[in-house]
Design a protein that fits this description.
Elements: H1 8-24, H2 26-36, H3 61-64, E1 69-70, E2 77-78, E3 87-91, H4 92-98, H5 103-108, E4 145-149, E5 152-153, E6 178-184, H6 189-192, E7 199-205, E8 211-221, E9 228-237, E10 245-256, E11 259-260, E12 306-311, E13 314-315, E14 322-323, E15 332-335, H7 338-342, E16 352-355, H8 358-362, E17 364-366, E18 368-382, E19 386-407, E20 438-439, E21 442-443, E22 457-458, E23 471-475, E24 477-502, E25 506-524, H9 529-538, H10 551-557, E26 561-583, E27 586-603, E28 625-643, E29 646-657, E30 662-675, E31 678-689, H11 693-697, E32 701-706, H12 714-717, H13 732-735, E33 738-744, E34 752-763, E35 769-785, H14 789-797, E36 807-810, E37 824-830, E38 832-851, E39 856-873, E40 879-881, E41 900-910, E42 914-923, E43 926-927, E44 950-951, E45 954-964, E46 969-976, H15 997-1000, E47 1008-1016
Length: 1017
């Protein structure tokens, strides 16, 4: 059983209480607090930095010292970071104080990141874009958040999220040279063009570095899993102000080990759920149910071979399956009883079956990850009024994991040029020659067209029924071979630019960048269909004793599949700014600029069928895409400080695509400061998202969704001896099956359009104390989507005509259920501009810093984001609401849309020699329902009868202690998830087993320890 946990809201409230008390006592405390602050201490940055959980570290030294900087979303240099648009700033010091060891993990932890984010852990759970990580601000998906490097675009990851949504991989961020990350939580198409509907993540690297610094770090969980290591080293020379130049080089290495379900505590480590809640099913293959009998599932083989006599492909009436191998090669033997076999679907089960815990033996939680790279930058003054730089980066990111046993009986992936081939059915929807898998009576040399008694040899080794002239129907997966997947992405990037001032007071900036991503996928252990048919026909594979097969035979059956993909981006961008005239509030400023960039993707299918329906692999998805385009843009910005208390900013951008689309994106923002401690701000903008290469050009793409009770009706399930109410007792064929949702690309798509506005306040009652509240509302129209599969599924299972726009392909029949209507195999529909998506919510944040005395400093900071609405409205007016549920179920891989995300950090610093930080992280719970799966929000339609319909919120507490030995060395120890609190059980998500991977993060590992040393000379 899971141990009791502290109430999530109580812990979060306890962590945030000091900040609330500080704010509530400001009128009486202000005078003392101001007096206690040294005159030369940098002011806490305005509350735009509210997400910086360690607010004692200003987002930038320049901003803290009053120097001019350029804030993401604006072209102007300014000292005031509290712009009309809300901006969150993360620094490496912020991440260190929370025990976060990569920039991508810090971005994933943002409170404004919600819904269909792509995490590294999902690589091992079927992600199309395996090996990558992507952020989803406002729950609007990975393709509506723009990721920049130093204000310039980056190349897309070669593979698309769900094969349709292009994004920039956060794993390509060079952690060792990042100065800060600015997250613009507002629409920004007026500044940056397409994809910035939900916001912008701008990764800003170090401008200069002098000296030598580095770190060495290692960590592991209390259970001895999830080991990780990190090394960094940076060396630089030169002083831009004194010598006119600076140069530095840097390198890093990061590694984290794979975690499997067998490494976790119960119930996450077993298919047996009898100890879950009030008592769930025993999902071990051939596991005994609560009634003491085998489930009424029909024959289940697991990773073992079972055979049954057949005439051709038709089983001999009254016959049973039997083990083909000498005993169970996987699992524990169990002798079935008369009661087991008397059940309606179990008449053909074997006298001895194998009980196998597939989750424990094969389940994957997170892949092996290894990243390393190097960077170099040279910056120099050019004359008195200009500065130039050149930066180069290389990074390699790799991930790998082992998966399930290799499939031999099933359907090929969705066909592109041919119908699917099936080794489980001869139904008309499959390619000619499809038939249930069987071992023949006679075997002949490979290539023999017709094999019989005249030219063949009796197949006595593999077929125990050959002497009787009968085939052997074969079920099971390869007992001694599992699939494995590995990605290796190499990224090469160069950037150069010059900034300066020319005559007339014009400030200029010219930047250029080139980026190339080279991705290799290596997939092993997957059965090549034609080779399977070959080794069956010629008898070269020993099914009766697989251990006797040679490596050459194994390699022939499961040849390694290697596929290469790439993406490119080249951009040049220039802008000029000028102070036009002086207004009562300051100088009016104008900025003008232009940009040209070229982007391309070449990601051919890893499993094409161009040579025929059997010339491909089982299980490997056939998705792929390619395309290129050139984008020309012009943009401008005008800032008018009308009076000291009121500033107006207006910007606009026109983008033209070589593919024929064009768009103008305007934005206007204002900030009103009635008195020094309070600023009121707001923005209104329009934006757009261009159809991705995947949406416009991809091959037919199929993603698989696990079946749930809401898809079915009692009339259909009666064929399988169960009902919607008793779905947990349905046969495995129904209960653990899945359907393929096939998306068809379209080159007739138009850009998505958006309207966005924000309104908020920045409250700074005293020095070093700040608080913000920002309301956001985003409406996306013409959203690109496939039609809702639930409509077609409901029609199929009700025996009604399939709605226009869909193609439904039935799956192969279940073993033992040959006379029943089969489950759905594939649902296909084309992408269209049809829906309206609405996201609305409130961001909150605050920070406070106080010197308790000359030796002790206390800091508290935190952020929170609440989604008020995330919904999709369809043509005709039907609306699906997702907040607080598992919807949008398909888009989020069943991880859903929690209403709340928040974190609060408290830090005590003693004499600048020792610091202790504690961070409380919170992700809200949700109801097990999803309106895109046919239910109604809050109805618990995806729930099971042995667990509550509501999943609790999840909270973790992280502690970080740092000891500064001297000015050159410091040691730190992190204890993550110090309460060792495991995530709540979620039986409905399919992105992980029994828990929500987005809600849980690394909390699923339990308590973790991480220790390291930092040095600088």
């Amino acid at each position: 059983m899971i141990k009791p946990r502290f109430t999530s809201k109580a812990l979060l409230l306890a962590a945030a209480t000091p900040l609330a008390l500080i704010l509530s006592t400001m009128p009486t405390f202000a005078q003392d607090a101001v007096a206690a602050t040294p005159a030369d201490a940098p002011a806490a940055t305005p509350a735009d930095t509210q997400a910086a959980p360690a607010a004692q570290t200003p987002p930038t030294a320049d901003a803290a010292n009053g120097d001019e900087i350029v804030v993401t979303g604006s072209l102007f240099r300014q000292t005031d970071k509290a712009t009309p648009s809300p901006v969150t700033t993360l620094t490496t010091a912020n991440l260190d104080s929370r025990g976060i060891n990569t920039v991508q993990a810090g971005i994933q932890s943002l409170a404004s990141n919600n819904g269909p984010a792509l995490t590294n852990s999902f690589t091992a759970n079927g992600a199309f874009a395996g090996g990558a990580s992507a952020v989803s601000l406002r729950g609007l998906s990975t393709n509506s958040t723009l990721v920049l490097f130093d204000g310039l675009r980056a190349a897309y990851y070669p593979l698309a999220d769900d094969a349709t949504r292009n994004f920039v991989d956060l794993n390509t961020i060079p952690d060792d040279i990042v100065d800060r990350v600015e997250i613009l939580r507002d629409g920004a198409s007026s500044s940056y063009g397409a994809d910035a509907i939900a916001g912008v993540v701008n990764v800003i690297t170090k401008r200069s570095f002098n000296g030598i610094s580095g770190r060495a770090e290692a960590g592991i969980s209390q259970r001895g899993v999830a080991a990780n290591q990190r090394l960094t080293l940076t060396a630089g020379t030169g002083d831009l102000d004194a010598k006119g130049y600076n140069a530095y080089v840097s390198g890093f290495y990061f590694r984290s080990e794979a975690v499997y379900n067998r490494d976790l505590p119960a119930p996450f480590n077993s298919s047996d759920q009898r100890g879950v809640g009030t008592g769930g099913p025993n999902n071990i293959a051939n596991g005994i149910g609560s009634d003491g009998l085998l489930p009424n599932n029909g024959p289940v083989a697991g990773a073992n071979f079972f055979v049954r006599p057949a005439n051709g492909a038709t089983a001999v009436g009254g016959s049973q399956f039997q083990l083909l191998t000498p005993g169970c090669l996987n699992g524990t033997p169990y002798s079935t009883t008369a009661g087991d076999r008397a059940q309606a679907n179990n008449a053909a089960i074997a006298n001895v079956v194998c009980q196998q815990d597939l989750v424990n033996q094969y389940g994957v939680v997170a892949p092996n990850i290894e990243r390393f790279g190097g960077s170099a930058r040279f910056t120099a003054k050019v004359g008195d009024n200009a500065e130039a730089y050149l930066q180069v980066n290389f990074q390699q990111s790799s991930s790998s994991y082992t998966g399930d046993p290799s499939v031999i009986r099933g359907n090929a992936p969705a066909g592109i040029n041919f119908q699917q081939y099936s080794t489980s059915s001869a139904a008309a929807q499959y390619a000619p020659g499809s038939t249930p898998l069987s071992l023949p009576v006679y075997i002949c040399p490979r290539g023999t067209a017709v094999c019989n008694a005249a030219n063949g040899t009796l197949n006595s080794t593999n077929n125990p029924f050959a002497a009787a002239g009968q085939n052997a129907l074969l079920i099971g997966t390869l007992p001694d071979t599992v699939t494995s997947n590995a990605t290796r992405n190499r990224v090469y990037r160069a950037a150069a630019g010059v900034t300066g001032t020319i005559e007339g007071g014009w400030d200029y900036r010219v930047d250029a960048t080139a980026m190339h991503s080279d991705l290799r996928r290596t997939q092993a252990g997957y059965v090549y269909i034609q080779h399977l048919l070959d080794v069956i026909a010629d008898g070269s594979y020993n099914f009766a004793d697989p251990g006797l097969n040679s490596q050459a035979t194994r390699n022939y059956l499961t040849p390694t599949n290697i596929s290469d993909s790439s993406s490119d981006l080249y951009q040049i961008q220039a802008s000029v700014t000028k102070k036009l005239f002086t207004l009562p509030g300051g100088p009016a400023q104008l900025a003008l600029g232009g940009s040209v960039f070229y982007e391309s993707i070449d990601a051919p299918s890893a499993n094409p069928d161009i040579n025929g329906p059997t010339q491909r692999y089982f299980s490997i998805n056939a998705f792929g895409t390619s395309g290129n385009r050139t984008v020309s843009s012009g943009f401008g910005e005008l800032q008018l400080p009308i009076v000291d208390q009121f500033l107006v900013n207006a910007s606009g951008r026109y983008d033209h695509y070589s593919s024929g689309q064009s768009n103008f994106s305007p934005k206007i923002g204002a900030k009103f400061t009635p008195f020094r401690q309070l600023a009121i701000r707001g923005t209104w903008s329009r934006g757009f998202r261009i159809p991705s290469f995947g949406e416009a050009n991809a091959l037919p793409t199929t993603g698989y969704v696990t079946n749930n009770a809401t898809l079915f009706n009692d009339g259909y399930l009666a064929q399988y001896g169960c009902t919607v109410a008793t779905f947990a007792s349905c046969p495995t064929y129904i209960r653990q099956g899945s359907y393929g949702s096939t998306t068809l690309a379209s080159q007739n798509l138009e850009p998505e359009k958006s309207r966005s506005f924000t309104a908020g306040i920045v409250f700074e009652p005293i020095r070093n104390v700040s608080f913000t509240v920002d309301f956001f509302d985003i409406k996306k129209t013409g959203a690109i989507t496939s039609l809702t599969a639930g409509d077609a599924l409901a029609a199929y299972y009700a025996g009604q005509p399939i709605p226009t726009g869909f193609t439904v392909t039935p799956d192969a029949v279940g073993v033992g259920f040959e006379n029943a209507t089969p489950r759905v195999g594939l649902v296909a529909s084309q992408l269209v501009n049809a829906n309206t998506i609405h996201s609305q919510g409130i961001d909150m944040g605050g920070s406070a810093r106080f010197d308790i005395n000359d030796n002790i400093r206390y800091t508290i900071s935190g952020e929170g984001s609440v989604l008020l609405d995330l919904s999709t409205t369809f043509p005709g007016g039907r609306k699906e609401k997702y907040v607080g549920t598992l919807g949008n179920y398909n888009l989020t891989a069943g991880s859903g849309t929690p209403r709340w995300r928040a974190n609060v950090t408290n830090t005590i610093d003693i004499r600048d020699e020792f610091s202790l930080s504690g961070t409380v992280n919170y992700v809200a719970g949700y109801n097990l329902s999803a309106e895109d799966q046919g239910g109604v929000r809050g109805d618990g339609g995806l729930a099971v009868d042995y667990l509550p319909a509501n999943v609790d919120g999840y909270i973790t507490v992280d502690m970080v202690g740092t000891l500064k030995v001297n000015d050159k060395f410091s040691f730190y120890l992190n204890v993550l998830n110090i309460l060792n609190d495991l995530p709540p059980i979620d039986p409905a998500t399919y992105g992980a087993y029994l828990y929500n991977p987005v809600q849980a993060g690394e909390g699923i590992y339990g308590r973790q320890f991480r220790a390291g040393v930092k040095f600088g000379f």
